[in-house]
């Protein structure tokens, strides 16, 4: 159920985001202690403002009500992905080249499944990451289970 809701929300939200000059980073729909939460993360060059979040929240709420996407009570949250922004698209690895990231893989690569270092780019289906020791590992995009910027490390 949650997966279907996320896909329907994306199909409604993406055109709105494009119109507003925003990027949809991620959508979550899950039950938490206070009930069901629909959480959208947005981004744009120069950063997201509180006004951006408020406008998206108001416009998206109306669209979701009209489309009757969710048939039970839920809370809509719209926010920036924050400093530890998830990296989910191939273009993210290019956009954030030069920044530090943590990457987990679904399979062992060079004896490891967790990597930490500076993104060096994306080419031919592989993400280049320079580790703390200066070595560069090329990680197949298809094997990335989770990736995010790492705010605990200094940016170059």
Radius of gyration: 17 Å
Number of continuous helical runs: 3
Shape: elongated
Helix amount: 25-40%
| Order of H and E elements | HEEHEHEEEEE
Organism: Candidatus Methylomirabilis lanthanidiphila
Subcellular location: Cytoplasm
Domain Ribosome maturation factor RimP C-terminal: 87-152
Main location: cytoplasm
Describe this structure in words.
- The termini are far apart.
- The chain is elongated.
- The chain has three helices and eight strands.
- It has a five-stranded antiparallel β-sheet. It has a three-stranded mixed β-sheet with strand order 1-2-3.
- The protein has two domains: 2-79, GMP Synthetase, Chain A, domain 3 (2-Layer Sandwich), CATH 3.30.300.70; 90-149, SH3 type barrels.
- It has helices at 2-20, 50-67, 90-95; strands at 23-32, 35-43, 75-79, 100-109, 112-123, 126-131, 136-140, 144-149.
- With 156 residues, it is α+β, with helices and mostly antiparallel strands.
């Amino acid at each position: 159920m949650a997966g279907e809701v996320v896909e329907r929300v994306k199909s409604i939200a993406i055109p709105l985001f494009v119109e507003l000059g925003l990027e949809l980073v991620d959508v979550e729909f899950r039950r938490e202690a206070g009930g069901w939460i629909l959480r959208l993360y947005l981004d744009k060059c120069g950063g997201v403002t509180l006004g951006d979040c408020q406008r998206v929240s108001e416009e998206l709420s109306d669209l979701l009500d009209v489309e009757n996407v969710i048939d039970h009570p839920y809370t809509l949250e719209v926010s920036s992905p924050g400093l530890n922004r998830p990296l989910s698209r191939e273009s993210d690895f290019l956009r954030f080249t030069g920044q530090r990231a943590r990457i987990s893989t679904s399979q062992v690569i060079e004896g490891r499944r967790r990597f930490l270092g500076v993104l060096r780019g994306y080419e031919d289906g592989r993400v280049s990451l320079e580790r703390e020791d200066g070595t560069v590992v090329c990680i197949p995009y298809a094997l990335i289970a989770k990736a995010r910027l790492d705010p605990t490390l200094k940016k170059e």
